[in-house]
Sequence to fold (1406 residues):
Amino acid sequence: RRFFFFPLGVAEHGAALSVCCIDPLAGLVGARCGLRRQSSRTVQVASTRQQWAIADRKRSPQHADEMDPRGKSAAQHLKATQALKRHSENLRMVTKKRDSRDKTMVGAEKEYFCEERYETHATPEVSSVRIEQWRIKDRMKTVSVALLMALNIGVDPPDVLKPSPCARMECWVDVQHQTGAPAKALEAIGKQLQSQYERWQPRARYKQSLDPTVDDVKKLCVSLRRSAKEERVLLHYNGHGVPRPTNNGEVWVFNKNYTQYIPLSIYDLQTWLGSPSIYVFDCNAAGLIVKWFKKFAIQRKKEQQRMTSTSSSSSRRTSTFSTAAAFATDDILLAACSEEQLLPMNPELPADVFTACLTTPIKMALRWFCNNSILSGDITPEMIDKIPGRLNDRRTPLGELNWIFTAITDTIAWNMLPPALFQQLFRQDLLVASLFRNFLLAERIMRSCNCTPMSHPELPPTYQHPMWQAWDLAADICLSQLPAMIANPTGELQHNPFFAEQLTAFEVWLQFGSDAARPPEQLPIVLQVLLSQAHRLRALQLLARFLDLGPWAVNLALSVGIFPYVLKLLQSPAAELKPVLVFIWAKILAMDRSCQFDLVKDTGQSYFMTVLSSSKTPVDQRVMSAFILTCISDQCHPGQCACLAANLLPISLTMLNSTQAALRKWGAFCLAKLWERFEDGQQVGVQAAAHERLCSLLTDAVPEVRAAAVFALGALIGSGEKDEQRKNIEINVGLTLPVVTADGSPIVRRELIIALSHIVNAYEAEFKSVAVDMILEEQKYRQEEEQRARQRGQAKKHGGSPAAKSRRKHENNAAGQQPSSVYGCLWKVILSLTVDPFPLLAVMAKAVVNNVHEAIRADGTVPEEVMAPSRAENLSAPASAVKSPARKALSSSTKKRTSLAAHLYSSIAGSSSSSSSSSSSSSSSSSASASQSSAGPSASATQSDPPHASTGSSPGTFSPSAPLLGHSSGSSLSNSTHTPGAPSASPAHSAPSSPFRSRHNMEDLLASHRSSDVLASGINLLRSSLYEWCSQSFTRPQRDDALLDDPTSPENMAKEWRFQRRSELLADLETAREKSPKLKFDTQIAFLDNERGVVSKELFHPFEPIIISCSDTDLITVWNWGEGAKINQFSNGNPGGSRISSMSLVNPNGNVMLMVGSDDGVVRCWRNFCSDSGMELVSAWRALSDLSPSSRHRGAGLLVHWNQHDGCLLTSGDVPIIRLWDAERDLSVQDIPTGCDSSVSAITQDASRDSRLIVVGCGDGSIRTFDTRSPPRYQAGSVLNEHKKWVINVSMPRSLKCGVVSGAVSGVVKIWDLRKRQSTTTMQIHSTADMTAMAVHDHIPVIATGVQNQRIKLSNYDGKELNVIKYHDGFLGQRIGPVASLCFHPYKLILGAGASDSIISLYKCT
Fold:
C-alpha cells in the first residue's frame, strides 16, 4: 500500500480534510473528486513542505506557477499532483468494488434473533463471580496502649555480651550522651516512645510502666482492659535491659528494689490483658514468646471447653476464660526476632531497630538506605532529620515520602496476603494497619541484620518484593534533592514521579491484561493516587477501565478498599470527575447492591440527580445515573424516600419522551422502583398521571422499553389501601395492558402475565366470582351438549334445525343474563395466555389460574366433581370456553367497555381452538384422510380451494387429559391434513413417535422451563426478573468499537471468510448459468427416508450439506444429505390437528436459525436445530390471530417469507391481509389488505435490497403486487388474472430482472414482467394431472414442477424441457412417489424432492 499526505484544510468542494494519512484501498479517489471515503484507521503524520505543496496544488490548481516557501518550483509539485491523479484513477475501480463489497458484507452480516433477550429470555444469568466480603463486619479501634520499658539503663543483662562500640540509642535517644540520672533517661525514652505511637493513634489512652514489677504490669493491664471493654489494647514490651525469655514461657521484669529479675508468665499476661489485644515484643529471642503464647492460648481454649462442660464453674471464671480464649481470631503478635536470635547491635543503627521501624518508618528506612547504598553521597543522618515537611502533609517532601511508603507497603501486602488476612490486618484497625505496614519494613531491615521478625498471624516473606526497588528509587530521588532543600527551604520542590510511573504501569497492564492473568500489582497505588488532586482524574479513568473488565475486577477493587474513596469523591464539585464517577458507581452497584444504604446516608442521590436532570449530559451517563438511582430505590425504603424528595419522578417522566430507547427504558424502571411497595410514591405517581405516560410506551418500537413499561405499571398495582379513584385507575391500567397480548416479544408478554397476576392478587374475590360463574356455565353447557347429543338422531331426521335453534336460543339467553364485568374480560385474557406459544409463559399463566381455582376449591363454593373438569378445560383448552355460551355472553356484554381486550382474547383464543383428539378419533381421521387422498383430486373443487384438500379431518374435541402444547407420547402423527397439493400419509406411516421425537417434544421443553414451586404456590412466586436482567448489562465490559475497525479482529475475519465463501459459490453459479440450456438434474445423490408422513416442506442449508424437512403435522427432520444421515428430529410444538405450513431460514450467512409457521397462526424460531442436544426455542408468537379454524384444514395455513436484509417477516395465508413483522421491534408494523376473498396461497418479495415490492398468489388464481410504501387504502398495485386455479408458487428470482415466475394447480407456469399487464411467457408444463409442487432456482433459469402422478419436470424460462424424473436411480429403480414438495439449493445445482411416501430424493445437475 502507498500512502498520500494531505494538510488539514478545506478540499476542492468545501469538504474538510481532517485526515493526514489516507489508505488508498480504503477509498481515496482522484484529485478532482476529492476524498470520497475516509479510512477509519488513520494516523496523523507530520508532513513535509513538499507534501504540503502537493495538497496546496490540489486545492488551488491555478497557482501552479508559484513557488513554495523553500524556493522549489511549483511545476514539480504539479507533476507530482498529476501522478497522484493517475494513481487515483487506477484506484477508482478498486474503491468502487470495495465499497460495493462492504455493503454486501454488512447486509449479509446483519443477524436477527441474536439479541440478548433471545439468549436469556430476560432471565438473569447466575454469576460465576461471588461477591467477596469486602466490608469489615466488626471494625475495631485500639483505644488503650501500655508501654512496658524494662531497660535498667546502665546495667546490661547477664546473658548477653555486648561489644564495644554497640548500639545504644533507644527511641532515638542516645543513652550514653543523656545527661542526668538513668531515671531521667528512662523517662525521656518513655515519652519519646509515646510520642512516636501518638503519630499513628493520637486519641488512644497511653500508660507507661518504666522498669515495672509484676504488680505494676498486672495493675496496668487490668485497668486498661476495664476501660477498653470490647476494643483492642496494645502492649509494647521492650526487654533490652533484662534476660531473654525463658523456655517456660516467661518474660522478665524487676522487683521493687531493682535488685532481682522476676519472671512474668505469658499465661498471666494473657489473663490480665484479655482479648482483643496486640502485643509488640522487642527483646532477644522474642520468637519464644510467640511460641508459648500460642501454646497457652490452646491450653486456655481446652480449659474453657472443660469448664463449660461442668456446671460447677463460676460465671466469673468462665467469663475470664471466654475473654482470653479468643486469641485465635483477635490477638495479634509482633516479635523482633526468632527463638534463637539476638537483636542487632550495629552502632550505626539504634538498639531498638524493630521499634524504630514500627513507629518511625521513614526515618529508619532512609538511615538504612544511606548505610546500604552507594547512591546516598554526602547525606548524613543529621541531614535526614532536616527533611522539611510533616508526615500528614502530602505536599511536603516528608509527607510525599510517607505517602509513597504507604502505597508501596499496601501494595506488597495486597499482593502477598490472602484477601481475608489483608482485610483483617490492613483495613480493620488504623493502628494495626500502620504497624503491619511498618512491620514489612522491619522484616526487610532486620533480615539484613540476620534477624527474622515473627508475627501472628504469620505473614509470608515480603522483604524481596520488587516494589521495594521502587521505594529505593523514591528515597534516592528525595535524598538527591535534600542538600538543595536544606540550603534553600523556599525553593521549588521537584515532586517524585513515583505515582505517575505507577499509573503508566497500570495502564500498560490494562492494555494487555485479562481476568486470566495475575491481578495488577498497582491497584492499591491507584487507591492512594485518588488522594492527589493532580493525578486524580487519570487514576479514576484507569480505575474505570479496570472495573469495566468484569465483576472480578469490581471485587478486587472493593477488596483493596476503593469504596470509601469514591464515596467521598461524590462531594467534589469538579465537573470533569462526573462522567467517570458515574461509570464507577454503576459498576459497583451492578455488582453489590448493598452500597445503596451508604449512598442514602451520604445523600449521594443528589449527585446523580444532577447528572440525570441535565439535558447536556451524554446519554450513556444519564442512563447510568438512572440505573444508579434505581439501585438506590430498589427495595430500600429510605432510598425511595430520598429519591422522591429529590424529584426523581418528574425527571423520569421527562425521560419517557426521550428519543433514546435506553433513556425511556430506564425512565420506566426509575418509576417502577420509586413506587414499588411504596404508597407515597404511588400516590405521587397517580397524581402526576405517570400511568398514562407509561401506557403510551406499550407500543414502543423497542421490546425492552415495552417490557419496562409493563413492569412499571404492574408495580403500581396491588399494594396499599385503595379508594374508589385508585381502584378505577388500577382497573383501567389492567384493561390497557392486554394490548401487548399481540406483542411478538416473549419478554413483553411475560411481564404482562406478572402484571395481571398482581391484579388478580389484589382483586382475588372478584376474579374468584368470575371464575365460578364461568365454571358453572361450563357445567350447564356440557349438560346441554350431552342432551343434544342424545337427541342428535332425531335432529338429523328434521335437518338438524331444532338443535341449532335451541343452541342459538341458549346462547342469546346467556348473553342477556351475563352481567358486564371488566374482571371477566381480564380473566379471559389470562386464560388465553395459558396457551401462549412460548412454553414458559404458558406455565406462568397456568400458575395464575391454578391459584384462583385452588382458592375456589378451598372455599367450597363449587363441588369437587364440577371443579376438576372445569379446571382442566380452562387450562388446556381455553378456546372451548369461547365456544360456550357463558363465555360468549361475557365477551359480548363487555365488548363496548373493553373492546380491545375482548377482541384480543377472542382472536387469540379462537385461533388456538385446535387440540389433539383422542386416539380413536385420530386413527379414524387418518384413515379417512388416506382414503380421500387415494381417490385423487376432486373434480368439483372450486377455484378458491387448495388442490387435494382433505375433508376427512375435523378440528376435533378437547380432551381434559390432552397436553397443553404438542402431542402426547401416544398421539398419532397423521391426525391432521396434508398441505395443499400433497396427499395424506397412509395408515402404514402412522407409526409411534421415534426416539428423536420423544426426546425433543414440547412436553420435554416445557419441563425444562417448568418450576414446581410456581405451579404449586401460585401467583405469589411470579416475580419479574426483568430489572435484574437489564441491570446485568452494567456488569459486562463495554464493547470497544475500535475493534470493529481492526481488519484482523475475529468479527471482521469471520465476515471476510463468509463473504469469500459466498463469492466462490456465486462464481460457480455464473459458470453454470452459461450452460443452463444443457443442464440436466439426472444424478441422484441422496435417498432419505422420513419413515412417516408426507414430506410437505423442504429447505436447504445454504452452506452446509443439510436439508430440513417437515411432515404434514408438526414433525421436523434435519438430514445430512452428504452422509445420508438423520442428525435431528423434533416436534415443532403446534397443537394437535394443526400442521406446519411454511419454513424459512433466518441469518443464512451466519448464526442460522429455523423459522417455522404453523396453521394455528404461530411462528416459532429454533436455534441449533442441527444439534441433537443443543436445540432451543428462541422465540414464538402468534403472527396471525384471525385464522379460521374451519379453513386450517383446507387452506394455505400460515405462510411466512423472511427478508434477511430488512429483518422483515411477511405473513399471510387464510386471511384477507398481509401482515408485516419487524424482527428488531418484535412488532407488527403494517397490515396490507389483499382485496381478495380467497386465501393467499404463495408469497414472495423482491430480493433486491431497496425494493418494497410484495407479490402474492391467491387461491382464485390471481397474482397481486403490493408496495409497502403505499397507503393501505390503495390495496393492490396490480392484479394479474391469467391463472384460473390455485396458485402454488410465486417467485422473484435474481436471474429475472423485474420478473415473476408463477405456477398454478392447472400445470401452467407463467413468467411476468411487472412493468407489463400481461405475462411474457406461458408454459403448459403439465396437462394430465394437477401440479402439486413447484420450485424456481434463484440464480439459474431453471424451474422444477411436480405432479401427483409421480413425475418431476425441469424446464428453463423458455419452456424447454431439460429432463424428467420418474424413477429412483439404480437397476430396477422404483418409481418416485407422488410429489409433495420441491426446493432448490440456494447456491448449488441441487434439487430436493419430497414425496407423500415420506421419501426425500436429492438430484444433482450434470
Q: What stands out?
A: Residues 287 and 339 are 4 Å apart (CA to CA).
